[in-house]
Amino acid sequence: MRTTDLIRISSRQVLRQYRKNIGVIVTIILGTAGFIIMITMGRSIEENISHDLEIIGNATRIRILFKHIPTLDPRTDKREFKQNSIDGIKAIPGVDQVSSIVTRNDFVKISHLDTIGYFQMLGVDESFWKVHGSSTQAGILFSEKDLQQRRPVCILGQRTAHEIFNHLDPIDQFITINNTPFKVIGVLDAMSMPDKARTIFLPITTAQDRINSISPVNKLYIRCYSWDDIEDTINKIPLVVKKYQPNDEIEIFLPEELLARIKAISFGVKIFVQLALIATFVLGGIGIWNIMMMAVRSRTREIGLKKAIGAEDHDILFQFLAESLMLSIGATFIGFMLGWTGVTFTASILHNSPPKNLFWLSTGIGFSFSLILGIVAGLAPAIKASRMEVVTALRYE
């Protein structure tokens, strides 16, 4: 049988029976589309999910302090991170944000009208909010201008705002901190740093300028781009600090348990998706095998007639194998189109352009896999059909 005749007959047979095969076709289409999307956009999706988990759990946040010296009173400890050290840490390839902090060892007195309270105070820079993934419930966060101009503004933790203002709107109201007036420009969201709910935040430059007994910059918070950058970053930080401050030793604190948990979640999601795609292809293969076995049974007399008029075993074998391949490749081709639509949609959500080289790579892999799937699933039914005896096939009812 000529190849063109084989393709024509097989295509006609598949199209004639497409309603019976719709379940298997849809399974292969969805499996192929999912494979295309995961190969093409998998890295971007993984990075996006990982970034969200990191922000929520602060798993890539590193805290740096000077090493504790038992004989040194914290109130008289004048050690501080020099600007050269901070700039050097910022230049480490895996570092996304670096935040400097100043504090007071005791509470500050805050008053508004007749209300007085004592709260923790932190002087922070504009990177502090990005490092901690913080947002406001009302108002805004500090801007670079607030720091440059040393503006007398502040942001309140949620409990601080409630205790000072009760149910009144604190935004644009003035409070007094140790007899110095400050304008409230924001209130932190309840989910942002719950351990800092009774805290008032000032621009670090303003705190250094206007608050008495303020500490030097003795604490840094660092956020890495991803957890893959953490190990390299924590190895380089001591070298950078040692270069500019050879007499100071530091301690690095990392939420290792949280990081391990988030890594496990991300890995579990990846494995689940991959297993789901594999299961989809396996089910598609089983479906093709089942369809072809039923086709052999229902067309037994047809096989007998073809053999009776001169068809060879290999003609029957190739016909059923071609039908299996047509079914697999046809569904895969539709899956390619659906997959490209999914890739384009996913890229628009993630605000990046789809990597076409990965799309064509995944298309090539998917096409190769569909060929293998069609051959493997259709081989046994095709062999069974080709080995039928003419007399037995013609007598089949």
Automatic annotation (TrEMBL):
Domain MacB-like periplasmic core: 25-236
All copies of domain ABC3 transporter permease C-terminal, residue ranges: 277-389
Localization annotation: Cell membrane
Naturally occurring in which organism (per UniProt): Desulfocapsa sulfexigens (strain DSM 10523 / SB164P1)
Superkingdom: Bacteria
Stretches of the chain forming a coiled coil according to its record: none
One GO MF term attached to the UniProt entry: transmembrane transporter activity
Similarity field: Belongs to the ABC-4 integral membrane protein family.
Membrane topology: Multi-pass membrane protein
Protein's recorded name: ABC-type antimicrobial peptide transport system, permease component
Annotated InterPro entries: ABC3_permease_C, MacB_PCD, Macrolide_Exporter_MacB
TM stretches of this protein: 21-41, 271-296, 316-338, 358-380
GO cellular component labels: plasma membrane
Alphabetized PANTHER family for the sequence: ABC TRANSPORTER PERMEASE YTRF, MEMBRANE COMPONENT OF TRANSPORTER-RELATED
Pfam families assigned: FtsX (PF02687), MacB_PCD (PF12704)
Keywords of the record: Cell membrane, Membrane, Transmembrane, Transmembrane helix
Principal subcellular localisation of the protein: membrane
